[in-house]
């Protein structure tokens, strides 16, 4: 597709369940980023991938959060044993390279943990 | 972690008025970016600034990279209803480590009254 796509657009889950969020970056973009946006807040960096390099996981808030990326394509963000404070919009972005400042964002996945 | 102070938090203005918002940080940034986010969408890049003192325009938008490298402002002239949204500043700090990590402000919510 022409832009970054994310699925699902909305996810409602019960506390303690695991969730998987998916991101399809723009074709040819080597860098992929995950951010979390709590209601009324700015974007909080979680993790980024650059090509085959080891991902930068410095923003992951706990070991319940993990992400994978297959080559330079799809990425999944997994949250295990979800908590209510995990409720947020999870945004994915991609760019040609990490040092390229123009990050193109997807529409996000709105996660609600009951 | 690193924080950006963005102000004002919200603005409610009359169509045709000019708008000004700014971001400050406690440390030096290499890059300042301004994004706009519409409801249900991901942020879209408006302007990118790469050098201290740089002044860049994009239509009715003008942004500047502060001389101290610790601040930036965004001006919107002659606002129109479609300017409504949340404006975020973002920056890449000048410290060794993650080059991919953008720090975001908490946003300025702009409302325009026709």
Textual characterization of the structure:
The complex is a heterodimer of chains A (114) and B (114). Helix content of chain A is 0%, strand content 46%. Chain A has no helices and ten strands. In chain A, the strands form two sheets. In chain A, strands 2, 4, 5, 8, 9 and 10 form a six-stranded mixed β-sheet that branches. Chain A starts with a strand and ends with a strand. Chain B is an all-beta fold and 114 residues long. In chain B, 0% of the residues lie in helices and 55% in strands. In chain B, strands 2, 4, 5, 9, 10 and 11 form a six-stranded mixed β-sheet that branches. A five-stranded antiparallel β-sheet of chain B has the order 1-3-8-7-6, with no helix packed on it. In chain B, β6 (55-58) and β7 form a beta hairpin. The A-B interface holds A 4, 31, 33, 35, 40-45, 48, 50, 56, 58-59, 91, 93, 98-99, 101-108 and B 4, 6, 31, 33, 40-45, 48, 50, 88, 90, 92, 97-107.
**What is the chains' assembly state?**
heterodimer
Low-confidence stretches of chain B: none
Radius of gyration of chain B from the CA trace?
14 Å
Q: State the major sheet of chain A.
A: 6 strands, mixed
Largest interface: A-B, 27 and 26 residues
> What separation lies between the terminal Cα atoms of chain B?
40 Å
Indicate the mean pLDDT of chain B: 90
The averaged pLDDT of chain A comes out at 92
Secondary structure layout:
The complex is a heterodimer of chains A (114) and B (114).
Chain A (H helix, E strand, L loop, with lengths): L4 E3 L2 E4 L5 E6 L6 E7 L5 E8 L14 E5 L5 E5 L8 E8 L8 E2 L3 E5 L1
Chain B lengths: L3 E4 L2 E5 L4 E7 L3 E9 L6 E6 L5 E4 L2 E5 L5 E6 L8 E9 L9 E2 L3 E6 L1
Parallel strand pairs in B: 2-11
Antiparallel strand pairs in B: 1-3, 3-8, 4-5, 4-9, 6-7, 7-8, 9-10, 9-11
